[in-house]
Every structure is written in structure tokens, then in C-alpha cells.
Specification:
290 residues, Phosphorylase Kinase, domain 1, Transferase(Phosphotransferase), domain 1, 5-stranded antiparallel sheet, 3-stranded antiparallel sheet, globular
């Protein structure tokens, strides 16, 4: 019984309101369990106070912080909550370290936010946390007005990321492409990005993943019905890589099971859409217009 207790606990009645059609996730399905991102953090001797939590899912809790002089940073607290008794702090540290290395690798790229350094909570380094400068803007959405240069600039940004030996990997998610207030494209989430050698088997994997990046970029343009130019990217013929076909055979059924689990737990309403949770990801609200 102890193994399923974290899931069953989520079925306890919660008063429904128009703003909260689902239920709060059980601790097992939250990166920090019952905890929330801290109200205050310290970075390079400067104190920051939390303004907003963007999301809190199974992998990470992401929140916006501001210093007394108005500087804003985003802190991502990767998973530390155990899974059925198995410790997960190692995973949170690993994910944070990998993303910090990616940000350091791309430190001179103006369309990737600068890393902000170590994050301290009550004087102790939060090894599961990675922080970067806040980029004001909105996640890319269909029918969003864009400048004629937007996709060409995103294409050039992706090419520069690839030149650093990095595959972005997560470009299929529109929310990872930020349309800044200046109208330019920014890449903001490098949690599962990969940096590999350009030689041998590692090089073959790197090139396959980078081809996936280019495929997803072309897909966003094709599907768009987006008001804005697509430049040379629109006419690019990027066939679906084999690795995406393989991934979908595995990932699509798993995603369906995950959504069904969240519906069964009444975390989400029937249909399983993210914006129906009690604490939905901010990006999902922007896509639906809520």
C-alpha cells in the first residue's frame, strides 16, 4: 500500500472553483514534493525575492525572482522528490549541472539568456538549481504576429548553437521558443540539450539530433498559419528523421498514459490538457488565452 499512497492521496476531495478545474498534483508528481520554490534566494551576494512560479511539474519547479534594484532571474529547481522511496537528488543535481554547462558553452550568444551563477537558499548552495537572466516575452504560439525576419533569425540562432557541438533536442515544444519583447527569438530551456563529440558514434548521434532540430524548426513554420514571414526556412524540405519516428513510437503512447493518469487522479479534467491543472504552466495559459 505504501507504494501507491502518494498517488491515492491526490484523490481526496478538493473544493472546485472556476479557476481551478483540476486538482493539485500529488507529491510524487512534483519535482519538490509538497515544497514550493523558496521565497528568497541569493546569487553572487545579492538577495532575490520570488515574484511568480511559472510551473511545477515532475521534472522541475521554475520561478521568477527580482532583486531590490529590479534585476530579474529565472531559477529552475530540478527534481529532488523521491520516487517510491528511491532518492532523486542525484538527478536534480545532474540536470542542473548539465544545463549550467550548456549556458556557459553559449555564453556569448545574445539570443540565449546568460547564466546567473550559483543559487543559495539560507546560505546553502542549491545544487539542483540552475539560474539565468530573465528574458521578457511570450512563448511562440500559432497565429502570433511575428516580424518577417523571425524564423530566419531563429534558423541562424539554431545554426550557431549547432556550431558549438550542441543539439537543442527540445525544439518540438513551442514554449521553448520565446518571442522577446524586441520581437526576436530566444531559446530558454536547455535541460535535455546534448553536447557531444563531432567524431565517431557520438558524432553520428549529434548530427542525427541536430537534424531533428532543423526538422522541428521547419515544422513550426509549415504548421504555423502564423502571421509573419518565414523567409528561406519555409521552403526548406527537411524529411522526418528516423530518430523522430522511433521516438514517437515510444513517446506518444507514454504521453497518452501520463495524461490519462493525471485525468484519473483528477489533476486534469477529461482531455488531459495542461491548463486545466490547479497550478498550470504559465505557457499553457498563454496558448489558450486564459
Amino acid at each position: 500500500m505504501s507504494l501507491i499512497a502518494p498517488l491515492v492521496a491526490a484523490r481526496a476531495p478538493i473544493a472546485a472553483t472556476p479557476a481551478t478545474r483540476g486538482r493539485r498534483r500529488p507529491p510524487l508528481l512534483r519535482a519538490l514534493g509538497n515544497a514550493e520554490p523558496p521565497l528568497r534566494v541569493e546569487i553572487a551576494g545579492v538577495e532575490f525575492q520570488q515574484l511568480e512560479t511559472f510551473k511545477h511539474d515532475s521534472w522541475a519547479a521554475t520561478a521568477l525572482y527580482e532583486s531590490h534594484d529590479g534585476r530579474q532571474v529565472v531559477c529552475k529547481f530540478n527534481r529532488i522528490q523521491p520516487v517510491f522511496g528511491l532518492p532523486m537528488r542525484w538527478l536534480g543535481r545532474l540536470l542542473a549541472r548539465r544545463e549550467r554547462l550548456m549556458l556557459e558553452r553559449l555564453a556569448n550568444e545574445p539570443l540565449v539568456p546568460d547564466g546567473s551563477g550559483d543559487v543559495l537558499i539560507d546560505g546553502n548552495t542549491a545544487h539542483n538549481c540552475v539560474a539565468h537572466e530573465f528574458v521578457p516575452g511570450r512563448p511562440l504560439a500559432r497565429r502570433m504576429p511575428l516580424s518577417p525576419e523571425f524564423f530566419d533569425e531563429l534558423d541562424a540562432l539554431l545554426a550557431r548553437v549547432h556550431e558549438h557541438g550542441v543539439a537543442y533536442v527540445d525544439l518540438h515544444k513551442r514554449e521553448n521558443i520565446l518571442v522577446g519583447v524586441d520581437g526576436r527569438p530566444y531559446l530558454i530551456d536547455f535541460q535535455i540539450s546534448m553536447r557531444l563529440s563531432d567524431a565517431g558514434l557520438a558524432g553520428a548521434v549529434l548530427h542525427a539530433l541536430q537534424r531533428c532540430d532543423r526538422y522541428h524548426l521547419a515544422k513550426h513554420v509549415r504548421r504555423g498559419a502564423i502571421d509573419g514571414g518565414a523567409g528561406g526556412v519555409a521552403g526548406r524540405d527537411v524529411g522526418r528523421p528516423w530518430i523522430i519516428r522511433l521516438h514517437r513510437r515510444i513517446a506518444v503512447p507514454l504521453r497518452g498514459l501520463r495524461r490519462q493518469l493525471l485525468v484519473w487522479l483528477r489533476v486534469r479534467t477529461p482531455g488531459g490538457r495542461a491548463h486545466t491543472e490547479v497550478d498550470p504552466e504559465v505557457g499553457s495559459l498563454q496558448w489558450t488565452g486564459l
